[in-house]
């Protein structure tokens, strides 16, 4: 874990935005956000994947530069999340048979892991391996070390992605002054941040509904069972609305209309038809037309999500937990329940994670749109800034000044001490003189007597 004074920096390459954030671990273990910056990435990121290396490199340098200015330190490294539509999980089973009952050791488990990691996927690489249960006969065992078996099936969940996902990130960083502290799988860190231990254990689906992609992660018995990134998101509803209203040259207007009037589920169509909305070029539309256009696209998104969840639906006791900017649209939970005919609880994540606080001078959204980058920040454990070295000349001048001051102080103290000694000596001499006079007088009296 990072020391209390260390500053952690994280970067997220989202579909429409490149975000950077800096935070500091507090004494109570919470993370305080010290700085936040973002930049539009529509012209360099496509569906969570770097599309233009030069523009992405420039944008990364700018947002990290802003963070450095805000915290007053030079950034040396940062954590970055891996996402994008090529990211997904692939199950794999490795079987072993023994001539007689054999006790399983840690070394044998490591060999099985190495065999699994040796699998080659065309134009893709394994980013992470999630061990599942081991099958021994008809039993599923999570910890098999020490057991004696004749036949064994080791199950793994491999998280893979195209080689270009990490290669393009590395190309961007090579030409900058920064280095990567660690490549993290965003959807895993998000699950660790958003989901409770109880939800993972009892079974749940975590949905991150972004602008151009939607990820679905399935957990049961506290283990990640499935991960997939769908190439569809809330931005598709914005595009549909722009086409329907013939405002394709004004994408911001379509987005604003979606946010203000849009719903994923329309309950009162008559009222919506009577509500006239003014749009650009002295035209108008109805709230019903806006809602129905958006509702049609959200229906497609929800049904695609449900198709990924279906095989686990009976194991999801804790239901479906949804985060991301696209989930903030009105009536999303109602749309999900009505379209899937499911009684599963749908929880829309609102606000910031419980262990995150915001510094007073930082303005940051708390509507669930940045939970991904917050999860990356929370997983950081290395200091990401350069502690500025002191100027040697200034340091020498300070030393000389301190030495001069100390010498002057010593001189003053010596003078004070000398004066004090002289005063003491005078007093002693005066006392001696007085004693001599009385002694003489006493002697004279004694002689008279």
Q: Which features does this protein show?
A:
449 residues, alpha/beta, Dna Ligase, domain 1, Nucleotidyltransferase, domain 5, six-stranded mixed β-sheet, five-stranded mixed β-sheet
User: The biggest beta sheet, please?
Assistant: 6 strands, mixed
Q: Tally the beta strands.
A: 21
What's the name of the CATH homologous superfamily of the domain at 200-349? ATPase, nucleotide binding domain
Q: For the largest sheet, list the strands in their spatial order.
A: 12-7-1-2-3-20
What is the name of the CATH architecture of the domain at 200-349?
2-Layer Sandwich
**Could you estimate the helical fraction of the residues in percent?**
40-55%
Low-confidence stretches: 389-395, 431-435
What structural class results from the helix and strand content?
alpha/beta
Q: What is the 3D form?
A: globular
